[in-house]
Amino acid sequence: MLLISCPNCGSRDETEFHYGGQAHVPYPENPNELTDRQWAEYLFYRDNTKGAFAERWLHSTGCRQWFNMLRDTVTYDIQAIYPMGAPRPDAAGRTTPDTGTASTAADSTTTGTAAPDISGTSTATTSTASTASASPTAPEGATK
Fold first, then answer.
1. Backbone dihedral angles phi then psi of residue 6, each to the nearest 5 degrees
2. Is there a contact between 29 and 104 (Cβ–Cβ < 8 Å)?
3. Half-sphere exposure of 93 (CA within 13 A, CB side)
4. How far is 98 from 23, CA to CA, in rounded Å?
5. Distance CA 84, CA 67 (A)
6. Model confidence over 22-51: pLDDT tens digits?
7. Strands 10-13 and 18-22
8. In angstroms, what is the C-alpha Rg of the chain?
9. Model confidence pTM above 0.90
């Protein structure tokens, strides 16, 4: 069981918190312009880092505030706790330079405004005759 130090309430048992997923996932600037594949990648594709990982947490039975946590996924060691909208610190607790993936605007659910990185995906359109006979391809790393 983890002992999580809420920035507002102090140290509390893990059962008072809810995990909110990966931190610093930017919301698309123009979500209406995304293809279905791009939208699905924003919604479902997340890093699966071994080691230091930035996460969002909600103190659901306490102050009901969101905050970010830098936690080692191997040892479960909590390395840093910092407010939403703040840049991610490194493993030693120092703030790392902003890489452009997080916004400084306060928001209860997201911390960014940039579109997801889809550089490795194809957005080319094909005719309906070729799409009917072609089998759909899964994203890299997915299993069928």
1. -65, 135
2. no
3. 5
4. 13
5. 5
6. 999 999 999 999 999 999 999 999 999 999
7. unpaired
8. 18
9. no
What amino acid is encoded at 79 in this protein? Q
| Tokens 């991610």 found at | 88
Q: What is the DSSP string of 84-97?
A: TTSPPB-TTSPBPP
Torsions phi, psi for 134 (to 5 deg): -80, 145
| 3-class secondary structure, 44 | helix
Percentages of the chain per state (helix, strand, coil), in multiples of 5? 15, 25, 60
Q: In what order do the strands lie in the sheet with 52-58?
A: 18-22, 52-58, 66-72, 78-83
- In this structure, the chain runs to a length of 144
* Token pair belonging to 16: 């008072």
pLDDT tens, position by position, 75-103: 999 999 999 999 999 866 566 544 444 43
3-class SS at 19? strand
Nearest CA to 20 out of 55, 49, 50, 63 is that of 55
